[in-house]
Amino acid sequence: MLKNVAEWLDKTASELPDKTAFSDGDRSLTFAQLRAESRACAAKLAGHGLFKAPVVIAMDREPHIISAFMGAAYSGNFYVPIDIEMPAARVKKIIEKLRPSAYIASPEYMDLLYDAGADKSMVIPFSEAAAAPPDDRLLADAAAKQIDTDLLYILFTSGSTGEPKGVCISHRNVIDYTNILKSTFNLDGGAVFGQTIPFTCDGSVLYIYQTLQNGCTDYLIPKVCFSFPVKMIDFLNKHKINTIYWVPTSYAIIAKSGILDVRTPDYLCRIWFVGEVMPNSVLNIWRKALPDAQYINFFGPTEITDTFVYYTADREFGDGAPLPIGKPYENVGVLILDEQNRLCPPGETGELCVRASKISAGYYNDPERTAGVFVQNPLNTAYREIIYRTGDLGYVNERGEIMFAGRKDSQIKHYGYRIELGEIETAANIIGGIGMCACVYDDIDKRIALFYTGDADEVYIREKLKLNLQQHMMPAVIKKLDMLPQHINGKIDRISLKNSLRG
């Protein structure tokens, strides 16, 4: 019985020891090297007597960070990656919530940890951990005590208050999800990934564990490639990357640059996206350039181990049409509930709620927020059955596909009307001359604001919006930016946009 994801690394390293597992183009690790480094890190942690304890990882986005992650897994502990670009104040909040037992860090990030309150005696340089002498007996003892519901990692996300929430994900959650993806999409060792998603974000889980389970190769694409789309195409072609799983903002940067009109990635056959609504105006540019590729829209939050529904784009959509989020995976149940906790009939919008074995155990050291969204299934009063309330709204269309209808917290009431801001963004995305856009609501002055990049001017945008929007939905503010602010995961930073209205 598989209890620990590190068992995948054991198997793959024995079968494909010299195959590249992770690479950023300059630095690479074979599966054998990865296993050796991981077990060295594990021996260092286990030697400190740690078990089922949080291990904070502060390292660059490069192949050796996986050794630190797997070191935590082999030793029976769980890893917590830290965004090294975060301010010390946020790192401090995370450390206070975790009370970590150990840290593994690159030397250049130790001061970040110290400034955030880390105990210097608990901070282990990665080079020291990776060079620790092996101790198979110690690790065998750790493995014997582990069960599959032990935590594998915690990822911190921000709620509407900005307070970090530590989402707890177990080995069982990841094993279930990885097996689902493998069987649903026929993934095998021939997949060559091009990863842009940071390791502090849940989208990275697909890359890491498909690679370990199937013997794939995962290339960590340098950030500079998005600043120079020609470099992106060159990187994809040089490494024969055939599978990408990006946020829509990343696809938009490439599509709006015009590079796909003159050059295309020669090997791409799987073009997958996750994290935000994919505008069909962007997707259609990619579909025109690479008509034979597989296009899949994935949807889901960190709390459900990355995603829980998917849609394979099997028909044409106009630029302004909404894209379905599709259907649940096997072994995942989706309930669409109204405000009285009743099942919504087809066509009626309600909250998307999920039941599955890959649902998180909750938020670390945060029972109040855990109890608020990990709740008893209201349709089952006979025994304990926990579902996760996503806060996302959706409905089932006439084809039986689930459609995303926005967030409960992004619906606004304006002039007495209930408005979904995403509908305004959809109308803006089809306007020629708009590259990217985002819509926010100013709660103080009660006004809708649209931010965008591109060459279109405000008068032209207003004329085009009037063709698709009612008057009460028209933005009071339309502002052009050179670049929309983004979080590290590539999603648009809407809080920063909202705050800019107060500046």
CATH architecture of the largest domain: 3-Layer(aba) Sandwich
Look at the structure and give the CATH class of the largest domain: Alpha Beta
Q: Which radius of gyration do the C-alpha atoms yield? A: 23 Å
Number of helical elements: 17
Distance between the termini: 57 Å
| Class by alpha and beta content | alpha/beta
Strand content: 25-35%
The biggest sheet amounts to: 9 strands, mixed
- Uncertain residue ranges: none
β-strand number: 26
Assembly form of the protein: single chain
| Strand order in the sheet with the most strands | 2-1-10-9-11-12-13-14-15
In helices, the fraction of residues equals 25-40%
Number of domains: 4
| Mean pLDDT value | 93
Q: What would your notes on this structure say?
A:
This protein is α/β, with parallel strands linked by helices. It has 4 domains: 6-13 and 27-169, Rossmann fold (3-Layer(aba) Sandwich); 204-327, Rossmann fold; 332-406, Luciferase, domain 3 (Roll), CATH 2.30.38.10; 415-500, ANL, C-terminal domain (GMP Synthetase, Chain A, domain 3). It is built from 17 helices and 26 strands. The strands form 6 sheets. Strands 2-1-10-9-11-12-13-14-15 form a 9-stranded mixed beta sheet. Strands 16, 17, 19, 20 and 21 form a 5-stranded antiparallel beta sheet that branches. The chain has a 4-stranded parallel beta sheet with strand order 4-3-5-6. α2 (31-47) packs across α3. The N and C termini lie far apart (57 Å). The model has no long low-confidence stretch (mean pLDDT 93).
